[in-house]
Amino acid sequence: MTRHCLVLGGARSGKTAFAERLALHSGARPAYLATASVLDDEMRARVDSHQALRGARFTTMEEPLDVSRAIVAAGADHDVILVDCLTLWITNLLMANADVASAVGELCATLMEFRQAKVILVSNEVGLGIVPDNAMARTFRDLAGSAHQRLAEVCEDVYFVAAGLSLTMKGEAPALSGT
User: Which candidate in 7, 14, 46, 160 could, as Cys together with 164 as Cys, close a disulfide (CB 3.0–4.6 Å)?
Assistant: First the structure.
């Protein structure tokens, strides 16, 4: 059975590196589904850095909004799909005035039916800090928290990463070095 995973952690916690190791350990034909929208030079530098670190080990695809469709499409040629990251995806949906809860529901439904490839979802845990001081930031935090709860229900494995170390919250502990 294909086991989908949710990898949570703070900014610069090591969650993407952990997810990449997990993906490379899980399949021979990994895809990297990037959700970032490059809007400025600083974001371009971040994207370029991530791509350079990945090298040619992954086939990179970019989809800022329709993650469910992109997962299904990637499943035709790949046995593992790493989606990085859900919080950027939620930001993109908010900026497009899209219904975030419906998009998350669609993603959950897709994951429950989709077994052509393992899906590894990466997201920033934003609910551990102070209450944001403005309505938009509070809405974002609430939507991300709700999305994480819904996705944790449908993913067989859930990991939390801090300081480059992973904690298994649900499911099987991965047999990876450096975790």
Answer: 14
